[in-house]
Design a protein that fits this description.
heterodimer, A: alpha/beta, Rossmann fold, 6-stranded mixed sheet, two-stranded antiparallel sheet, 9 helices, 40% helix, B: 27 helices, 68% helix
Chain lengths: 231, 703
């Protein structure tokens, strides 16, 4: 079975591209390819000019990855957790500490730095996860359903972070199946069904192409032949 | 590999582990507290029971004939009472009415009075502490009485009492305090130590692999600029460090406990010490470090394929229990640390730890044990490293839900995990689809693990069986320890017996070729022995032992069944069945035959047997490869062994010189030998085209 087939996607610096599709459409697989967690059987993928197969280390240094799970170590404090990922990304002690303080202040959790991660609320954990993803100031950000399970306030913090990243010239892929969020945030969207691209463009372009009024209708029309049910 | 990143991972894992209360309690706190507590309790309990028994007088009943002087002596002995009227005195000790019964045998009184020896039975109850104390008192009292009586007799005869005591023995213990303390430790410590170090590795190994996966942090970690090998190395170091600390804490606690208990004992007094010589202490540290490294890698490799912590425990527990067997065997005694035994995982290291405590180290074997342990640890680490590069390890399939009834067994899941080449993940469990088709053969790694399992079983259980039961033990070890692991592996690793063991009917041509080869294979085998004799000199002692083993059964049919049929079937099933097919999945057929023959040779110790068995292994392997049928190998092996066994049975028992010569001199004149080689060549030629179909010659598409 092909998890992804003929996916042709380029994201420019300072752009947020939404990756839309039902569960099992191949969104997470695409992101894992781009962060060099898995290698493609065929085809090519590169981030900031680095090929995922040939230079996985450089790719990972250029990427900030935020997965659906928060990915924090419960027995470490927030500061220890961030310092760990900072060290793996090559940030030295004092520089790393400075970045942690800056990011924590931006995301509004400076008072939580000495608290153990397993004592944080879901929203707090997600903020710390975002901090982890952006700590090393990557050139590209990959968000895999980052607002799943978050309340509106927490989700807004994540959205703000993405917008700031765009303004700072980061290339951002935002995987979601929340159409409202995608329309609100993304400059362009790619519709992925069963591993294949069923449409790409701005929200307006997609609506025009499918001849419908809302993004939800675009989504339903794109998946009408049942391809979206493919697991 | 970047050392700085490895250390970063290791430091973080240690910090997390040290904050895990379960690990702290199970690994670092419990053992050091338990030893002194349990040992002190046991000692105090024993002491108080003994003190109670010592405070009470010993009740003695005298039965049989009466020796008045003995009664009078006992009556005047302190702490001894002679109850005046005990009903049915002969069973008084068993009933608990008396502590000791002294029975003077028939004619004893007369013998005593006449200057002879009176037989006196001392009957006591070993299950009763008070009776035990009574026995000690009686032995002392009767010895004193006997000595006094002897003295009286000598005086009556006008002789000096010293005449009967030409020497006076006074025992003095000259064991250095270190050795004394060491011998006490050696009795209990090695197995306990190995087991606690396993626990020390087990918890963090599961937590840092499957725990990380289950908590969802592994994907994020590997998305950071750190290579999977660096993650594995860092985690491995952290697990090994925890196991090592656990080992050191345990050693410290044991030394403290044993030292403090023995220091209190009157017999040893304050002279006891458990100080180890610096070289021994360094070797002990090295051995413990290797134990830690080995278990860290092993537990990580075993736990990594699991999807949940619960599943990881299901994988790890059988391995833990299996590892306890060699550790306990080492403690039971009966095993000496020899270079061969040193190769057995865990057993070698446990025996080394024991030898180090005793201060009596065979340094060559110790070196082999350390090197072998390093190799075992490296192999296990390689496994663990591979696990982390598999997609299934990183993302896995979700744990099965209750509704998914047909979940593959842990063994099958493990097989699927390790059997699938590269990163190709097997289909997720419980997807309702049919089970995957059976594999053509075991994988190379599975085959090597299977060989290791068989070697360990043969060296340990097989050795005991053959030592205790002789011929029967040999037969049992062949029929149980060889086929059972093979069949289990084929069954549970989902391998087709037809291709995985070459279980196909042979053609007539294959049978003919096998008979020709089987009848003549002994000759090149002997030539190989002769060629290598200057390098590995056959020792007559082993030859004699082998000859006696083979000629022990009185019935020729038993001899043939045990020494020809059993090896032919059981050994072929492993070497030319499972292993040859497995090797062919990676190697060209001739290389696979060669590798199987090498293992077959290594299996036949001592060293001088390896040359002939290697040649035999090559010929048997060739027969199975070209015929596509295991039966050809079995036939060759059967005929070869039967010939050797029958010659040993019906030939005259050789002298030592003849035995030695048999391995170094030409067995037949050269022209006869040439004829034999011609027949062998004919057999080899016959086998070349003896497969039923061209497909039978291949294995999963390989020639």
């Amino acid at each position: 079975m092909r998890a992804l087939d003929a996916l042709d996607l380029a994201v420019a610096a300072g752009e947020i591209v939404g990756l839309l599709g039902p569960n099992g459409a191949g969104k997470t697989t695409a992101l894992r390819l781009l962060v060099a967690l898995i290698a493609p059987d065929e085809g090519e993928a590169s981030v900031a000019g680095h090929d995922v197969r040939r230079a996985p280390g450089a790719v990972k240094r250029a990427v900030g990855f935020l997965s659906a799970s928060t990915g924090l170590y419960g027995r470490l404090t927030v500061r220890e957790c961030l310092a760990y990922f900072g060290a793996l990304c090559g940030l030295g002690g004092p520089e790393c500490a400075r970045r942690i303080d800056t990011v924590a202040a931006e995301l509004g959790f400076a008072d939580l730095l000495e608290r153990r991660c397993d004592r944080l609320s879901t929203g707090q954990k997600q903020r710390v996860s975002i901090a982890r993803a952006v700590l090393h100031e990557p050139r590209a950000l990959l968000f895999d359903e980052p607002t799943a399970g978050l309340d509106l306030f927490a989700a807004r913090v994540v959205h703000e972070m993405a917008r700031k990243g765009r303004a700072a010239g980061q290339a951002i892929i935002w995987s979601t199946h929340d159409l409202t969020e995608a329309e609100l945030l993304c400059d362009r969207m790619v519709l992925l069904f069963g591993g294949r691209v069923r449409g790409a463009g701005t929200a307006a372009e997609l609506k025009a192409a499918f001849g419908v009024a809302t993004l939800a209708e675009v989504f339903l029309a794109a998946g009408a032949d049942g391809a979206g049910e493919l697991a | 590999m970047d050392r700085r990143r490895v250390l970063t991972v290791c430091k973080k894992e240690l910090r997390e582990t040290l904050r895990d209360r379960r690990t702290i309690v199970a690994v670092l706190l419990l053992p050091p507290l338990l030893y002194p507590l349990l040992a002190t309790l046991a000692v105090k309990l024993g002491e108080s029971r003994r003190a109670d028994s010592v405070a009470l007088p010993t009740r003695v009943v005298l039965t049989g004939e009466e020796i008045p002087a003995m009664r009078a002596h006992l009556a005047s002995t302190p702490d001894v009472t002679l109850p005046p009227a005990v009903a049915a005195p002969e069973g008084a000790v068993a009933r608990g009415d008396a502590d000791v019964e002294l029975h003077v045998g028939e004619g004893g009184a007369a013998a005593f009075a006449g200057g002879g020896t009176a037989p006196v039975d001392l009957r006591w109850d070993a299950a009763s502490e008070r009776s035990g104390v009574g026995r000690e008192r009686m032995e002392a009292a009767l010895a004193a009485f006997s000595a006094a009586a002897a003295e009286d007799r000598l005086e009556e005869a006008g002789l000096a009492p010293a005449l009967a005591n030409p020497i006076a023995v006074a025992p003095h213990d000259v064991a250095p305090p270190e050795r004394l303390g060491g011998s006490v430790l050696a009795r209990v410590a090695p197995a306990l130590l190995v087991m606690f170090m396993m626990v020390g590795a087990l918890y963090p190994a599961i937590d840092l692999t499957v725990g990380e996966k289950e908590r969802g942090t592994l994907e994020v970690l590997l998305a950071a600029p750190v290579a999977p090998t660096e993650v594995v190395a860092g985690k491995f170091l952290a697990v090994a460090a925890t196991a090592m600390v656990s080992g050191l804490v345990n050693v410290g606690s044991m030394v403290f406990t044993v030292g403090s208990i023995l220091a209190q004992a009157d017999a040893v007094g304050a002279t006891l010490s458990i100080a180890l010589a610096p070289a021994t202490a360094a070797a002990l540290f090295g051995a413990l470090a290797l134990v830690a490294l080995f278990f860290a890698a092993l537990m990580m490799a075993v736990a990594a394929p699991a999807r949940t912590l619960k599943e990881a425990q299901a994988y790890v527990m059988p391995v833990y229990l299996a590892c306890m067997v060699p550790a306990l065997l080492a403690n039971l005694g009966g095993f000496e640390l020899t270079p061969a035994i040193a190769l057995v995982p865990i057993l070698g290291l446990t025996l080394l730890v024991k030898a180090l405590f005793l201060g009596d180290v065979p340094w060559l074997a110790a070196g082999v044990a350390l090197a072998a342990a390093a190799a075992h640890a490296a192999a296990a680490l390689w496994f663990a490293g591979r696990a982390f590069t598999r997609e299934q390890m990183l993302f896995g399939a979700p744990p099965p839900t209750a509704a998914q009834a047909s979940t593959p067994s842990p063994a099958r899941r493990l097989a699927a995990f390790w059997g699938s080449p590269g990163a190709a993940a097997p289909p997720p469990p419980g997807d309702g689809g049919p089970l995957p088709p059976r594999r053509a053969a075991l994988s190379l790694v599975e085959a090597l693990v299977l060989s290791l399992v068989v070697v360990v079983l043969m060296l340990t259980i097989g050795g005991i069986l053959q030592l205790r039961l002789g011929t029967l033990g040999f037969a049992l070890s062949e029929w149980i320890l060889l086929p059972v692991p093979v069949v289990l592996a084929i069954r549970y690793l989902h391998v087709s017996p037809v291709t995985g063991l070459s279980l196909r009917l042979p053609t007539g041509r294959a049978v003919a070729g096998a008979l020709l080869v089987g009848a003549t294979a002994w000759y090149p085998a002997m030539l190989a022995t002769m060629a290598l004799a200057p390098l590995v000199r056959p020792d007559t002692e082993t030859l004699r032992m082998l000859e006696e083993l083979v000629t022990a059964p009185s019935d020729t049919w038993v001899t043939v069944a045990v020494f020809a049929v059993s090896p032919a079937v059981c050994e072929e099933l492993l070497f030319r069945g499972a292993l040859l097919a497995a090797f062919r999945t990676r190697l060209a057929a001739p290389a696979a035959v060669l590798l199987a023959a090498l293992l077959f040779a290594a299996f036949h110790q001592p060293a001088f047997r390896m040359a002939p068995t290697f040649v035999l292994g090559l010929l048997f392997g060739y027969a199975v490869w070209r015929s596509g049928s295991l039966a050809a190998g079995v036939l060759c092996h059967l005929l070869n062994n039967a010939l050797v066994v029958l010659v040993s049975t019906y030939g005259a028992s050789p002298t030592d010189a003849e035995l030695a010569g048999a391995m170094t001199d030409a067995p037949v004149p050269w022209h006869v030998g040439a004829g034999i080689l011609v027949v062998l060549a004919l057999g080899v030629w016959t086998l070349w085209g003896s497969a039923r179909t061209a497909e039978d010659l291949t294995l999963a598409g390989r020639r």
